[in-house]
Amino acid sequence: MAKSKSSRFHYGYVIIFCCCLIMGIDIGLVMSCAGIFYKPVSAAIGVSVGDFGYYMTFVYFFSILMLSVAGKLMDRFSARWLLSASSAILGLTFLAMSTFSAVWQFYLAGAVNGLTLAFLLYLSYPTMVNRWFNSKVGFFMGLCSAASGVGGVIFNPLGGHLIATYGWRTTYIIFGAIILLLVAPLLALLLRNYPREKGQEAFGEKQTESLKSGTSYPVAIKSFAFYALLIFAFMMVSVSTLNLFLPSYVTSVGYSVEQSAFVASAIMLGVTIGKIALGWINDKSPLIGVMTSVGLGIAGFVCLLLGTSHIALMSAGGFLFGWAYAGVTVETALLVRTVFGSLDYAKIFSNISIALAAGGALMSGGWGFLADFTDFRFILCVGIILLLFSGFIGFYALKNRQENLSANSSQLTK
Hints:
mainly alpha, Growth Hormone, Chain: A
């Protein structure tokens, strides 16, 4: 009987499918495809591309606001309905955006999208994978995170074709309908909060008791490791936003627009492969995972600096940089789990994610401001320094993991 129970299909794989839907379609459409609307929408409503681009600032800012409470909501209420409702609101917002004629309306939509993305982008797959899996956690987090890149690969050319053929308003309607009629209903139908709701245990129950229980939220936020991971997240996402400026760097050193697009594709390939591979590596050793992401990212910057006369070297640099980009979501989520365990994961990670959103909001424009006053090669060197510091911080957080668990045990015995 026990053998039959253990060998039956585990519902955790359905949870992975749901998380891939969220990342591949919801996040793929909202984040990965945002850029294809900038030029046609700004031209249609009579504003500059830069003014329209502030839409994303509202997305990040309101994500920061919601993340301060989103982790507590995920623990207190049904993640199934929170994620389903967030997806439905996202779809409705896209439908509304098809009717807009003023830039402030898009800013308002960005604020609403930011509130939903606190759940969908930052907390969905880290929380659900953490609840449903005790083994292969890194691999499945990497797989879910990589789905956003796959969504971007699929929907960017599709969206570009739809805009060229039917216009941006119709494209917003189609994208909203995909989210509203496909993703939201499937999440409501298939998602479950915990394995016990399907009469199962988390996949791979064999693990240490310290990881099962972990560090409580009150103890975690008083630890040095918590603030170290805040800095780690901020630095890593700051480096990742350099992706927005690398095509301009490639053309500035003499390459064609087509060659810069090839380098951009190499970056996305590195991000997609890197997310899955880093997840697998972290299952073996979190420290090696951090060193791999940071080390390959540094190697990528070096190749980009040296590749001014060799497009193959420049492309290799883009691919390796993609691994550092991948480490933003994968390494941050897994470091939080490794250092603090599963007990209050959603609460702790939601606070760490504030640094991700803040870094994205500040540095996506900050690098451009710095580029106006310095050479871009200097900025790449700054990226190397940030990655080096990130590696040291990740090492420190892992080294102090036992201290966090000991502090939690002391707190519980009082």
